[in-house]
Amino acid sequence: MVLVRHQEDQKRGSSGSVRGEELQRLFTALDSIGSNTGRIVEVVGAPGTGKSRLVSDLTQEACQRNVKLLSGRCVDAEREIPFHPFVHALSGPSALDLIDRLPADSAQLLRGAFVDTPSWDGSTYKLTSPERVQFRKAVRTLLAHSAGPGMVLVLDDFHHADPDSVELLDYLVRFPVPRLLLVIAHRNRQASARLRSSFAHGVALGTVERVELGALSLSQSSQILGLPPYDERLRHLYRQSDGNPAYLLMLAHGDPEASSKSVDCDAELGTDMLLGELAALSTDEKTVVTAAAVIGDRFDLAALTAVAELDSDEVRRSVAHLLGRDILRPVGTRAQYTFRHPVVRRLVCAHTDPLWRLSAHRRALRVLLDRNAPVASQAAHVECLLDHLEPQDLPTLVRVADHAVRSDPSSSVRWLRAMLHTLPDDGRHRAERLQLSLKLACALMAAGRAAESRELYLRTLDQIPPCPPRVRASAVILCAQLENMLGHHVEAGRLLEDELAQLPSDTSTEAVELILARQFVMSMQRRLDSTTLMERCVRLSQQHEDRANEAGALAALALERLFNGDVGGAEAAATACASIVDMLPDAELGEHVDYLAMLGGAEVHLDRFAQAKRHFTRGVSIARASRAHHHVPVMLLGLSTVYHQIGPLESALHTAAEAGQLARVMGADHVLGLTLARQAACVSATEGHAHPEKAVALAEEALGLLSSDCFYRGIEAVLIFADAVLTAGDPHGCRALLLDAGHGPNLPRVPLMQRARCFEKLTAAAVAAGDTAAAATWARSAHSAALSTGVPSHGAFAMSAKAHVLSATGDHEAAMLGYRSAADLFSAAKMLVAHARTLILAAASASDCARYDEAATLLALARELARRCGARHEYENARRHQRRLDRLVKNAEAASEPGDVAALLTAREIEIARMAGKGERTKDIAEALSLSPRTVDVHLTNIYRKLGIKSRAALANRLFRATGPAGA
After folding, report:
1. What distance in Å separates the CA atoms of residue 125 and residue 142, rounded to the nearest whole number?
2. Residues 265 and 314 occupy one common structural domain
3. pTM value?
């Protein structure tokens, strides 16, 4: 019957009924009530875990079984009244009748407690030690007489018990009352040390059974709310409540998905009980607990004192009392505190006077600002003040918004807009409104809303006066950088040129910065300022002792010299720039991140990949920490380019994808196109022939996003697209792409620093298409382009192009030497991916001229390099060539034994072999067979490779062993 009733309670969804295991233990104790040995059950748990509900279910069961029941409840207000829980429980008429039957001295003591209760006052009524002992014995005797055949005594909230009641309970624990089930419910954290010690000894003696109510399971929470266990809303509420049923109900209250009539009713009861607990606090304690709720999840005494506006001693005493009541709890070993649960804090906030709370938030925000606390901890206070801003709040909120730009730009945008709305739009506040508008534009930029930021900058620029020039110049540069990032290169350049024309002096620091910003923008359009102007900027920066601008001018000078083919001058400028940048602190480069971008770009073209990686990485860090968030995707793109050359390719792909995500959020389609192109290059290097269509699709999408006036970055994207198309097996498409982008066979539109690579790609496409004559022409063009720069990687591309032609015409030994030279140059440049790819080509040529041992060595090195940099495509390519090499070696070994030469050679090769074996010259063989001497040499090379020999003498010997004299 008990089990059936328990199941029915569970169906109703009550919070107490889900404690089936704990309730069954109480019912089991109730079953043994008639034994001569009394039983004591301690029900212990944190507030809200369901202790009172559990003992209530027990008392209902006792009543249904017709078991005699007495109950009492401790309250904090009666903590000073001796024995008050026992007095409440035993003050019935039957107990009074039993008192009269006791010895006179015991009856007198009990009558004073149970009959004359109103006159009892702990401050005036005192019991001597012998009287206390006698009183405890008398109560035990009274309970034994009252128990009769069996009785249940339930005392709830015993953590509020007075010290005399605790002593009495300790006595009953040591001397249990026969046929009595004594159930004590309490909160362990609020119980006195004496009470906890008594129960601990009782558990050790076996006279006390502990029923501890811990956190509910997810399944139990599901029963309470009537939601399925897999419901995500239930899981969210369960995590928030920490498995506490009272908090679970309160959190679900009012939620249409998790609430019901019974849930709302139980939640309201729990709220009322918690409010009653708070109502019992003193005035100072209420003020302190309210201040704590305003401050946040964690707080210390100093913060409480400042927000509560109380004396520090009063705050200290109040905190001690709140800790004793388990409303506050200490945090670790630090002198910090928190609420016992966030629900308690939320309830305190909800029932605080709104005006007091508003002023408290202002005081809390000042405390956090003085401590330089993280912006995240200040955000809640700022949000509370937004709808009630006052002029005196603005300086404080501006400081918070400035900090939030780095960590929470979206909140910074919201706060700054609220401040602009509050500030009057009149002449008195013009300067403040301009400052807030510029800050808002920066915040919008940091939040990835580049288009909005650009529009606000353009509107604000019309209002910024020409003096001081520093403020206006900085705003113009930021606006131009945004225009440039969004692909508006012409507009960006015009904006900078117009501002330069309005400056009172063309030698000022502002002029230098505007010129350098224009140089960065114009580099996208193949229109660079002269070397003379850049050198002048270097000198002006030196005169101003402005190291940051000097570094920027040197970086711009390096780029300008690269575009004009002065590689030596570019190297000197880049070296000087790097030496300055590496000594400057990040703070000085915060507004000049574009200088690092220009330096990194120059270093990439100069094969200084390690230095470029360092500067791009630093640029990403500085851009994220400053207001230059629009530079982050550009820096990540540069870093991805470096990783693509030196590995690992996984980092190159990840970095490019991150840059693309940022560019997409910012609405910078131009930058997004560049990131997609870089991702295509990474996919081609990692997946290659396995999924060539993926790289082609990415590269095609990239070209569709890039503007036509971005020649430099656009050519890079075309190169990547052409490479993907060639890998996919379309050499004609590859050639068409490159010639169209370069404006003809001489590639006049391709920058000099990319021309050797383009010509190498054209050579490879021509070889794949079978046009060796065109391939030879492209290879010569690649050689000329490489000579004009002297950059090692350009020489490597030129050597590779020449080797492509040699391999196509059958001169495999010369091709192998060419590829090895190219590989050495790629190795010097630390370009691991290109190094591995070229070694594989060298190994293929070595195999073709029967240099098998050398081929095996080259392939082993290629596999290791490909593994190291994550080039899966090249790794698999090397393994494929290794399998081909194994077959060639096996064939050569088989060919070294006498056998049928006809099984290894073609008819033409047999014919030439017989004539060469007789000692005839190449020229004579060519005339006899109507072939060119070059063709005869190619056939002989193939014959040597297939037969595993290296000379005509070896050929004659091989034919003699295979066929005898007749074969000769």
Report:
1. 22
2. no
3. 0.65
